[in-house]
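Ticket opened by: R.M.
Priority: normal
Category: complex prediction / small molecule

The reporter submitted a protein together with acetyl coenzyme *A and asked that the result be attached to this ticket for the collaborator who will pick it up next week. Submitted input follows.
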Amino acid sequence: MTEPPKKVRAGITGIGSAVPDRVVTNAEWAGLVDTSDEWIRSRTGISERRFCDAQTAASDLAFLAAQRALARAGTAPQEIELIIVATTTPDYPVFPSTAALLQERLGCAQAGGFDLSAACSGFGYAFYTAAQFIENGEFKKILLVAVDTLSKNMDHTDRNVCVLFGDGAGAMVMEPAAAGYGHLASVLGLRGSGAEELIVRHGGSRAPLTPENIASKDRYISMNGKSVFKFAVSIMGEATEQVLKKAGLKPEDIDIFVPHQANIRIIDAALKHLKLAPDKALVNIQKYGNTSSASIPLALDEAYQAGKLKKGMLVAACGFGAGLTWAANLFRWGY
Ligand code: ACO
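Result attached by the on-call engineer:
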């Protein structure tokens, strides 16, 4: 095994997640739009998803996930030096950041913090960013939270989009890893030429919400499903191969593959590309749908709780999303 020498590697020392209580089944969607349980299951792999209620915002889910991660890491909030929140659905559209809200609520009095926006690739971008701060010696304890509540940004009458997404949060404490564990390599990618494929047109500085446009569907997610599907099918396998190559490893070295949970057919295509056995992939799309930036840490937390993640396992995670963005991360599970 040839892994790049590094003085310090960033590792995950505590993980947690949170989803809202409200379960929205396919049958419920079938009563609201022209769709069916059969169509959604067979075309996406999704059976149900979780939606926040009107009072619950991204920072509320983030808070619960973060508390669980801190408890599992045995880390007091005051020890956290930096908070990174990956989200495209912050509590407030301009400011303050979700990191600021979280800092106050958790009591991370010593921490700096910021939000990072990379859509469904947000976790991978945040993980690599946190790893850099730890590996260059700047910080010893970082709280990373990936949270999205896309149920609040979609048109609940658009069957092309509304059946796909769910709300959720995943969090982790990252610290210098024990020798032989932790972050090995990451790759980040961006293809801005595909920006129009997955876009919320109104509500930003290009087209602020006004009394005239407030009723327009352009305040919601607009997606070219076919085009995103094609992109995702090729990028998941390619980005995972790239990150493995960077670390001098091969697909067969992967113990656990954590794909972004957008569509079971995209996950199956990536597994085929990488020639990985299906049981190597963490899949929970049937229960949560596409939770955007939260999907990878949510799946990791579930696997951790089920005892599937063993110390020393090689974990490859790969996400893709609006932008178009992608991110792949490789690490050795160390706790
Ligand atoms: N129920 C029933 N029929 C539907 C539904 C639905 N919920 N949604 C679409 N259809 C219809 C379409 O209107 C179309 O009808 P038509 O042939 O009469 O025009 C037909 O089904 C087939 O549509 P396709 O687009 O060919 O369906 P496909 O098999 O490609 O599945 C899907 C659509 C599930 C959206 C797929 O393209 C996909 O998963 N794309 C990727 C989406 C994605 O991952 N997005 C998130 C990226 S992450 C982020 O950053 C947010």
